[in-house]
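Researcher: Can you fold this with coenzyme A in place?
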Amino acid sequence: MSERQFSGGNIRKLWPTETNKFRDHLLRLDKENRRMRFAHGVSDAFVEDYAARMSETGALVYGYFVDGEVRAAAELKKLGIAWGREGEAAFSVEQPWQKQGIGTELMGRVIRAARNRGVQHLCVSCLAENAKMRTIANKHEAELRFEYGEVIGEIIPEGPNYFSLLAEAVDDRFGYMMAVLDLQNRVVKAA
Ligand SMILES: CC(C)(COP(=O)(O)OP(=O)(O)OC[C@H]1O[C@@H](n2cnc3c(N)ncnc32)[C@H](O)[C@@H]1OP(=O)(O)O)[C@@H](O)C(=O)NCCC(=O)NCCS
């Protein structure tokens, strides 16, 4: 399996114009996965409003795309107006695409994006019972720490270096290329 391709899909950052794809992905999460994603049950209206704010808040969202649809997503959010020491991360993979390493790859992207922006504390709004997330964090040599009774885990990313900055820039170029190809495919299909 190449680093960027999984079961016919690829990972890239979403453009601000792709809010609808992000929303549709979140709406497709089944009840239990939605509860795990938001740390409590939420309505469709809540999800729609949440996704609509994605570009407004300056959040960085990675999507796992299959045939032009987002099937998994990872968000990196700043807590203030600008990127600071603290950030927030969240992850979601639709059921049929789970257990293929996509969540692990997405967390790698988010940790790297966080360190490249100087984020030193990454909060993950996640139920403490979420053992999968602990497993994934361990794979990145990060510990998802929870205070007793809390639903916010914490990851401490390393500082940025030349390689982490370069790797994100290379991924972005690849992601741009994939987005253009995806757009071309849709234009051809529509013609
Ligand atoms: C959590 C989530 C993002 C994981 O995505 P994924 O693509 O299935 O994850 P991966 O395939 O990369 O890795 C999952 C790992 O957890 C392990 N795992 C599965 N069930 C587990 C369990 N009950 N306890 C511990 N580890 C478990 C898997 O074996 C796998 O590790 P491996 O690759 O070493 O075998 C996905 O299940 C999801 O979207 N859940 C609903 C939303 C959510 O919980 N989001 C997190 C809070 S924001």
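Model: Folded with coenzyme A in place. DSSP finds six helices and seven strands in the chain.
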